[in-house]
Amino acid sequence: MQQFTVFMDIESSRSYIDELYSSDAVKVMEALVTLKNSVIGSNRQKSSVISQGVVPRLLQLMSEESLDPNIRLEATITIGSLAKGTPENIDSLIEKGTATALVEMLKTVPLGSKLAEAALCALRSIFSHKPAPVDALPADMRLLTRLTQIAREDSQEARTSVIRVLAVWCSGTVEQEALTCAGACSAAAAMLVVPPRSVPSPSRLVPALELLAAMCFKNPNVAQVALNTRHGDKSIPELLMCLVSRDKPLVVALKAAKCLTFLQRAGALPADDSRIVFGALPCLARLCTKENTEDIRASAAEVLAYLTEVDTSLQRLAAISNHLMSSLADIVNCQSAAAKQGAFKCFASLGANDEDIRKMIIETHGLMVHVVNGLNNPDPCVSLAAVRCLHSLSRSVQQLRTTFQDHAVWKPLMQLLNDSPGPELLNVGSSTLCNLLLEFSPAKEPMLDQGAVEMLCNLTKMSDPALRLNGIWALMNMAFQAEQKVKQRILCCLGTEQMFRLLGDSDTRVIMKMLGLLRNLLSTRQHIDAIMSEYSSQVMQLVRQAVIVVLEGSYPAEVKEQALCILGNIGDGEKSKDLIMANEDVLRKLVDYLAHPESKLQEAALFVAGNLVWRGEAGAAARQQRLAELGLLRALKLLRASHHAAHLHDKVKTALAQFNEFT
To answer: Alphabetically, which GO biological process terms does the record hold (predicted)?
Structure first.
């Protein structure tokens, strides 16, 4: 029946559609009016007309400058009506080059004309479709300047349309800079003015606020221009401050607070600026309360998460604003993925730095159950936000020992990381694992049983340096004060070849943690001897690379200190001492570092020397003699006499006391 109806529509419209191709301008005009009237308000008619292939003819009639302006206007209005149809309708229009044709038309059409307004309205409808055909609008300064001129001087409808189009188009640094040069900040500021005793219009204000936010997002240069842009006697921040008040429409207040947030995060406003402390932040906290609609609350939580993400003072202020913790807990209970995502992100930001705030979050009724459920949520955005929240809370030693164990949060986290997660989730999730694997965490043992070692070893082989760092960092935490079987499992799974690669990594932080892993593996005398007896040749190869390459290279002192501490740990083993003594290069480096100008490196070298020369252990006299021949005794005496190493004198004295016949 439906097919028959569409067939009848096509047949009945055939006569006037045929007239669109007439050479008689009057007939063309009549056909356009009939066609326009038939598609207004009817998606079925829109689909029918598009399916008959009329769009190319409409674009031709719209674009031909030699035609009667009224014909061009009617064709443009009809295109605009078709652009208000179904997503499939808009896809068809885009495929036929409608957006490009409208942009080309706007380059020459008279400003202030009805034709310009109709073209902008049609383009706005097309750009409201996702994904918008942003490539149709080039970063051409003449065109952009013309569009921003319309935004300042034309009719209200045209101004709103062009601002909306530019807001969607502004998706990166190139667009941000181009729009700034074209005067878009001034155009947006002009749209933000609300005359006294007038009702604020969201349809006018929201596009301008969205454009301003898009331009300032993570762009310090543009944010500074916006800060200094004025309309009348008010700057943009002052105009925004007027819009975050309680008497403004919720969506307007939200968008204005978002603009202030982006200005602050881009460095144009300090965190203690009154327009942030008394404007954006309390506005966003207020919009999170349950009196507001779910979409407003979700968006407000997300913006507040971004505002408070890095600044501790803002985190502390937000945590005590307008019962925010209770509001966020209630938002987590909402059904929409956007709401859960916004709330988890906000909790993550608030708990990033302050232990007292983390305690407040944890004590929020039922939150950890929601976090665990969030980790299992099928929406990847929700699960990622839940992992971010978990990562933030996992910085708390107290919570690792109590709440995290009570809820076994490691189980869904491990499951999530084993299910081929995206790179962002893998990064945040593996960072969380680093904290869960600290030595005091009760989750450490059960995570080992679930294949944590193998997962982390695989991370160290990733091309992303952040993932390699997380993998090796977590392994280092796992090896700290671990049982011998855990250390041997790490050695076996990671393998010496991969350890060599990590010691030569392009990221110094990876090298640092790899040295930390070696140091933790080679700790506790019994473990050292057991590992060295099984892996002596491979480990000493690693040690040679770690010591010779690192100590000779231009690495930070912290990295070199780790290398020396590894030697000190090996020197503490009963049998492994001989492996160091057999390597003259290593011993000479040890002597050199006793005279190093960096105090912490002298102390680390002294730690190695003390373990090697300790009296009363088998072979001590022979080791002392060999080290004295290489200059170690002389270096210790010079260190004792140094005024710059006074804080090391007790340790130097203890080491010298071991040399019975040499002192």
So the answer is: proteasome-mediated ubiquitin-dependent protein catabolic process
Q: Taking the CB of residue 406, how many other CB atoms lie within 10 A of it?
A: 11
The angle that helices 156-169 and 202-216 make with each other, rounded to 10 degrees, is: 30
Q: Does residue 462 contact residue 430 with C-beta atoms inside 8 Å?
A: no
Contact between residue 143 and residue 100 where contact means Cβ atoms under 8 Å apart:
no
DSSP string, 10-44: HHHHHHHHHHTT-S-HHHHHHHHHHHHHHHTT-HH
Give the pLDDT confidence of 500-554 residue by residue, as tens digits.
Answer: 899 889 999 999 999 999 889 888 777 877 777 777 777 777 777 777 788 888 8
pLDDT digits (tens, 9 = 90+) for 219-251: 999 999 999 999 999 999 999 999 999 999 999
pLDDT at site 13: 56
* CB crowding 60-92: b at 16 or more within 10 Å, else e: ebbbeeeeeeebbbbbbbbbbbbbbbeeebbeb
For residue 2, pLDDT over 60 is answered with no
> Cα separation of 550 and 512, whole Å?
10
HSE toward the beta carbon, residue 158, CA cutoff 13 A: 22
Alpha-carbon torsion angle 653, 657, 659, 660, nearest 10: 150
Cite the DSSP H helix spans in 229-288: 236-243, 250-265, 274-275, 281-287
Percent of the chain at pLDDT exceeding 70: 95
User: What is the chain's Cα-based Rg?
Assistant: 35
Backbone φ and ψ for 230, nearest 5 degrees, come out as -125, 150
pTM for the structure as a whole: 0.86
In whole angstroms, what is the distance from residue 478 CA to residue 475 CA? 5
First to last CA, the chain: 110
Quote the CA–CA distance of 344 and 340 in Å, as a whole number: 6
553 φψ region: left (φ > 0), alpha (ψ -120 to 50), beta (else): beta
d(CA 467, CA 317): 33
Instruction: Spell out the residues 6+ positions from residue 322 whose beta carbon is closer than 8 angstroms to its own.
Output: 282, 285, 286, 288, 289
Helix 98-106 to helix 55-63 angle, to the nearest 10 degrees?
A: 10
pLDDT of residue 80 exceeding 90, the answer is: yes
Nearest alpha-carbon partner for 147 in 131, 160, 129: 160
Q: What is residue 3's predicted lDDT score, i.e. its pLDDT? A: 42
Residues facing residue 230 across a β-bridge:
235
Euclidean distance between CA atoms 216 and 434, whole angstroms = 35
Beta partners for 372?
none
What gap in Å lies between CA 559 and CA 540, rounded to an integer? 18
Q: Which residue do the tokens 């932040």 mark?
A: 281
Q: Do you find a cis peptide bond into 237, omega within 30 degrees of 0?
A: no
> Would you state the structure tokens that stand for residue 415, as one six-digit string?
């499951």
* Alpha helix stretches (DSSP H) within 355-464: 355-362, 367-375, 380-393, 397-401, 403-407, 410-417, 423-436, 444-449, 452-459
Q: What is the largest CA-CA distance in the chain?
A: 120
Amino acid at 356: D
What is the distance between the alpha carbons of residues 440 and 398, in angstroms, rounded to a whole number? 10
Average pLDDT of every residue of the chain = 90
What is the structure's pLDDT at 660? Answer: 65
**Cβ atoms within 10 Å, residue 168:** 23
456-471 in b/e form (b: 16+ CB < 10 A) is bbebbebeeebbbbbb
